[in-house]
Amino acid sequence: MKTNIISIIKFDYLTKFLFIITVVSILLLFAVIALDESSVLSVIIPFFIISEALLVIRTLGVKKVLDRVIENKVAGKVTGTRRNNGNFYMSFEYEFKGKTYKSKSVFLIGPLQRIKLAKMETVNLVIDDLNPKKAYISDLYYK
C-alpha cells in the first residue's frame, strides 16, 4: 500500500480546509491581476504564499505520519456517526497494544461518501504508535 496525497487532501479535514483557502487565494490573485489593482497585490501575494506553504507542510506532515504507521493496522468498531453543518463525524474504538482507545474523525465530504461511511460497522485503522489516541482510517488514505 502507498500513501495517496490526493486522498490526504480529500479526507484530512485541516488539509482540505487549507486547500480551499489556497484555491480562493489563487482566484483572488487572478482577479486582482485582471483588474490591474497593483495596490492589492501586496496583500494577496503574501496570503497566497502563506496558504500554499501551510498546505504543503500539512500534507507532507500527514504523509510522513501515514508512511511511518503503515504497519500498525488494527480493526476498529464504529460507535457512532453524526452530521453537523456539512461536517461528518465518525467515532470508533479500537484496541492497540493491549489498551482500548476511543477516537473520532471529522470529514468534510460529499453526500455519497457520507452515506458510504455511515453504513460501516467496522473500519480498518492505522494507529500512530507515538500517539495511540490518533487513528487514521486506512481505507481512505492508502491506495
In short:
This protein has 143 residues and is an alpha+beta fold. It has two domains: 5-68; 73-141, no CATH class. It has helices at 5-11, 13-35, 38-68, 111-118, 138-141; strands spanning 73-84, 87-96, 99-107, 122-127, 135-137.
Q: How would you characterize this protein structure?
A:
With 143 residues, the chain is α+β, with helices and mostly antiparallel strands. The protein has two domains: 5-68; 73-141, no CATH class. Helices cover 51% and strands 28% of the residues. Strands 3-2-1-4-5 form a five-stranded antiparallel beta sheet. Helix 1 (5-11) crosses helix 2 and helix 2 (13-35) runs antiparallel to helix 3. The longest helix has 31 residues, at 38-68. It starts with a helix and ends with a helix.
| Lateral strand order in the biggest sheet | 3-2-1-4-5
Distance between the termini: 6 Å
Order of helices and strands: HHHEEEHEEH
| Overall number of strands | 5
What attributes characterize this protein structure?
single chain; 143 residues; alpha+beta; elongated
Topology:
Blueprint: H1 5-11, H2 13-35, H3 38-68, E1 73-84, E2 87-96, E3 99-107, H4 111-118, E4 122-127, E5 135-137, H5 138-141
Antiparallel strand pairs: 1-2, 1-4, 2-3, 4-5
